[in-house]
Amino acid sequence: MDVPDILPQLERLDGEIDDLEEVLEPFLASIPDVSNKLPLLDKAKLYVLVTYALESIIFSSLRLNGVNAKEHPVFQELTRVRQYFEKIKNIENPPPKPDQSLNKEAAIRFIRSDLADNKEVNTKLTEMIAKERAKAAIKAAKLGEKRKAEAEPEPEGAEDDDEGSNEPEDAAEVQSEQTHKKSRKQKKKRKGKKDKSSS
Q: Which Gene Ontology cellular component annotation is one that this UniProt entry carries (predicted)?
């Protein structure tokens, strides 16, 4: 079996690498000048890209020379540089932060438990809880209607029906009135007990 003569291809490759070095020399020498003119994030991108390019060339050279490059420290460097790519990507497009909102109902329960002996405050807190629950019911109903509307496309010429949106408000008003009636009954019972005890 004849082995083909690859000496001419190797000489051509060597010449092309020399040409590449000449072309890249001005660029690599001017990186600090170029990076000083860039914003911070673009400067980080430039340095990471140049590092990755150089490490990739070394990795490819090792593979061409028959070295197991995945066990070489260059492979660890490539992995580290890829992590920098991910960090830059996360800075450019940050993941959405979860909404942090106050759970008013829980706060009211804490206050009520601390001021349990003060009946007037307790009554007001009960009313506030009822209002918060009503608001939550309205919000949930609107969200449900919105999801339902997104899921089912309306036929052409169909008009919006506003009657459905009043139902949650009516439910909230009914719940608020019921809570208010309960608090009035509790006040009357307390007054009746006070009158009996004072007699």
A: nucleolus
Burial class (CB in 10 A: 0-12, 13-18, 19+), 163: exposed
Q: Is 157 left (phi over 0), alpha (psi -120 to 50) or beta?
A: left
Distance, in Å, from the CA atom of 52 to the CA atom of 34, rounded to the nearest integer, reads 18
Tens-place pLDDT, residues 21-62: 888 787 777 888 888 888 888 999 988 998 898 888 888 888
How many domains does the chain divide into? 2
Q: Which tokens go with 180?
A: 């208010």
114 and 179 share one domain: yes
End of a domain among 92, 124, 143? Answer: 92
Please give the pLDDT value at position 48: 92
Based on the fold, state whether residues 62 and 110 are members of the same structural domain: no
Query: 52, 72, 92 — which closes off a domain?
Result: 92
Taking the model in full, what pTM does it have?
A: 0.40
85 lies in which domain range? 16-92
